[in-house]
């Protein structure tokens, strides 16, 4: 597919969104920047954009094959994902299978406690207000989504969780939690957007419980890129690795 990169529409903390010659499509460029704590802690990690785009593409492909509507059209080359342009809903939809992170800081859950059924939490994606946790009533009053849309989002999110949890476990990775974002496509469908990567998920090695995600960066530990590459190595097929010239 020949998609020309056009004007920059939006530069976020880790990705840039570009217009293309098709008004219903964008190119999402995955940058090497990594941030934590509302952007207070910030660094650049060589090849992070490359790996996050390849990892995200893999997950989007797996989900599409299972019938989930996603933004994904194709990975033009590592770092550059051709996507449906979405009118984003400013919600961070968080799903938790194992208690970790802010959940155990804010509530009396035990560290690594299994959460079955999974816990779904929605935060308002708004840096100025530091992404506060929502309930349906506040979300609807703010005009962010209708009850019907929220019910639909929960339903799709649980399906996504089940699909990815199984896919990862088969590859020796636990899926404690993840954050996703949705938007409306040009036909008004609610579609999964943004990314699914070690920046936005917790991944633990199921055999060693080794952390393989952004928590390493948050805690100032070394080996962040090695962990991201290990996730890529564990989830990509030999065919994927050959296609993107990845020798892991
Ligand atoms: N398919 C899409 N179409 C349009 N915008 C998208 C799409 N997927 C993701 N986005 C938006 O693009 C931006 C991605 O950039 P990034 O993740 O770096 O931003 P962010 O720092 O999380 O967000 P922000 O700067 O908005 O707080 C986000 O605002 C995200 O909501
Ligand atoms: Mg983001």
From TrEMBL:
Glycoprotein as UniProt keyword: no
Residue ranges annotated for the SAICAR synthetase/ADE2 N-terminal domain, each copy included: 9-234
Pfam families per the UniProt record, alphabetical: SAICAR_synt
Signal sequence annotation: none
Record bears the keyword Nucleotide-binding: yes
UniProt record, GO biological process: 'de novo' IMP biosynthetic process; cobalamin biosynthetic process
Family: Belongs to the SAICAR synthetase family.
Protein name as annotated: Phosphoribosylaminoimidazole-succinocarboxamide synthase
Biological source species: Methanobacterium spitsbergense
């Amino acid at each position: 597919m020949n998609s020309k990169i056009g004007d920059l529409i939006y530069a976020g903390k880790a990705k840039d969104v570009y217009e293309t010659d098709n008004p219903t499509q964008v190119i999402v460029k995955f940058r090497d920047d990594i941030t934590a704590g509302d952007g207070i802690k910030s660094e650049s990690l060589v090849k992070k954009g490359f790996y996050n785009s390849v990892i995200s593409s893999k997950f989007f492909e797996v989900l599409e094959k299972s019938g989930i509507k996603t933004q994904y059209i194709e990975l033009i080359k590592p770092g550059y994902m051709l996507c449906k342009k979405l009118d984003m809903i400013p919600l961070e939809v968080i799903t938790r299978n194992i208690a970790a992170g802010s959940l155990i800081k804010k509530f009396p859950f035990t560290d690594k406690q299994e959460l079955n059924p999974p816990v779904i939490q929605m935060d308002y994606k708004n840096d100025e207000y530091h992404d506060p946790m929502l309930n349906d009533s506040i979300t609807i009053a703010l005009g962010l989504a209708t009850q019907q849309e929220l019910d639909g989002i929960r339903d799709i999110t649980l399906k996504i969780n089940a699909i990815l949890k199984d896919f990862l476990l088969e590859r020796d990775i636990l899926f404690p939690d993840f954050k996703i974002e949705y938007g409306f496509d040009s036909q008004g469908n609610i579609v999964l957007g943004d990314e699914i990567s070690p920046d936005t998920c917790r991944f633990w090695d199921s055999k060693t419980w080794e952390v393989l995600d952004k928590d390493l960066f948050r805690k100032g530990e070394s080996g962040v890129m090695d962990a991201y590459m290990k996730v890529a190595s564990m989830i990509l097929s030999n065919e994927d690795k050959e296609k993107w010239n990845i020798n892991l």
